Amino acid sequence: MVSRFLERKDEWVALCEKLLHDGKPEPSPIDLRALAQHTSDRRRSSDIFDVVEKCLEPTPNAKLLAKAIATVRYLVINGAEHVVDRAWRLKDAVGALEKYNSATCGKYGFQRGGRDEGGDVRRRAAELASVLGDVDRIRSLRAEAATHAHGTHEATDAIHELLGCLYESAVGTEGKSAQVR
Question: Which residues have a Cβ under 8 Å from the Cβ of 101 and sit 6 or more positions away?
Answer without folding.
Answer: 116, 118
